[in-house]
Structures are given as structure tokens and as C-alpha cells.
Write a structure and sequence with these properties.
Elements (H helix, E strand, L loop, with lengths): L5 H32 L3 H36 L1 H6 L3 H33 L3 H9 L4 H32 L2 H13 L1 H5 L4 H10 L7
Helix pairs in contact: 1-2, 1-6, 2-4, 4-5, 4-6, 7-9
């Protein structure tokens, strides 16, 4: 396998950058502008929801690109995840954050759509809202919290990316693999020092997961 994973890394990083940047801009710019420019809460909610609806396809594409790139990098770095101390833990932490960010993003959009329908003066929207009733005040409170949860979670993923970048440095790889080889658990599982050295010398050296 080639040591270069430029395409996967690009999908991973650009997708996450758009996910984080879009969510932060939405919370600060779109939602903030709608609240400040329109004093009527229902109308402000509809304006903000319309903006989020326009962003949703782009955001979905960015998230998809990030997930595809992440899966490719994980496959390319499987030896490091298995044999380098600390990489498995940071990869697991990033997986948990990714799942939480996905859930928060999806729930935010569902709440936003329900608020948009419930606040709309259009009769068809009102009928659709009746099929999916929502406590408007409670939904708006939840959405106010979620608008900051998504950028916070994706920022955490960016921090873990930085950690993965540090862990891929040759001296970090060697030290981490030697620590894993020396651990009682590794010895009990049959991971000899020689096996770890082989993973270090033959595994991909220029990718992070």
C-alpha cells in the first residue's frame, strides 16, 4: 500500500473544516442575525430555519466526505492503531465525538424544521406541524443549546486531529510502539517486540486517523 493518502486526508480534513466552520458561523452569524434583525420570535425562527435548510445539503456532503476520508485513513493506519500506544485511545475518543456530533447535527435539524412549521402562518405548514406536535418553548431552548454543541464537538475532533498529527511523528511512533510491546497486556496477547518493530517499519508513516 502506498504511504501517501492525500485524497483520503483531503476529504477528511476539508469535510471536518466545513462541518465545524458552518456550524460556528450558523450559531454566531445566522442565528444571531435573525434574532437581532427580527424582533418577532416566530419570524426569526423561520428565517434562521430557511438559512439552515439551504446549508443542509452542503453540510451533509461535508460530513460524508469527512466520514469517507476518516474510514480510509483508519484503514491505512490500522497497524498504528493496533501497535502504537495511545493511538487506539485517541481514535476511540474521536469516534465517540464524531457520533455525538452526528447526533447533535441531526437533532438540531429536526428541531429547527419542527419550529419552522409550528411558527409558520401557512396553513399547509400548520397541518404538517399538527402531525408532529412540539412544545415550541422547549424546542427553542434545546436548539439554543445544540447550536453550540455541534461546533464544540467538532472543535474537539479538530484537537484530536492535531494529536494524531503529533502521534505520527517518527519518534512518537517508535516510542509508542515500544511502550505497547513492553506492556504486560501486549505480551499476553502475543504481540512480541519483533512484531511491533515490523509494524513500525512497514506501516504507513504519513497518515493520521
Amino acid at each position: 500500500m502506498s504511504e501517501r493518502t492525500t485524497v483520503m486526508r483531503s476529504l477528511h480534513d476539508i469535510g471536518l473544516a466545513a462541518w465545524f466552520g458552518g456550524s460556528l458561523m450558523g450559531a454566531v452569524g445566522l442565528n444571531g442575525a435573525a434574532r437581532n434583525a427580527v424582533k418577532e420570535p416566530g419570524l426569526a425562527a423561520r428565517i434562521a430555519s430557511a438559512g439552515w435548510a439551504a446549508w443542509t445539503p452542503v453540510n451533509a456532503a461535508a460530513i460524508g466526505a469527512h466520514l469517507v476520508g476518516g474510514a480510509g485513513l483508519l484503514g491505512a493506519n490500522s497497524a498504528r492503531v493496533a501497535y502504537q500506544s495511545g493511538v487506539g485511545a485517541s481514535t476511540l475518543a474521536k469516534t465517540v465525538l464524531t457520533g455525538a456530533a452526528l447526533a447533535a447535527t441531526a437533532y438540531s435539524r429536526v428541531l429547527g424544521k419542527k419550529i419552522e412549521l409550528a411558527a409558520s402562518p401557512d396553513s399547509e405548514d400548520q397541518e404538517a406541524a399538527a402531525d408532529h406536535p412540539v412544545d415550541l418553548d422547549q424546542a427553542q431552548r434545546h436548539l439554543a443549546m445544540l447550536q453550540w454543541a455541534v461546533p464544540a464537538l467538532t472543535a474537539g475532533m479538530l484537537v484530536l486531529n492535531a494529536l494524531h498529527g503529533e502521534q505520527q511523528r517518527p519518534e512518537q511512533q517508535q516510542a509508542g510502539m515500544l511502550r505497547r510491546a513492553a506492556s504486560p497486556l501486549a505480551m499476553a496477547g502475543g504481540r512480541s517486540m519483533e512484531a511491533v518493530r515490523r509494524a513500525y517499519h512497514h506501516g504507513p508513516m504519513a497518515s493520521h486517523c
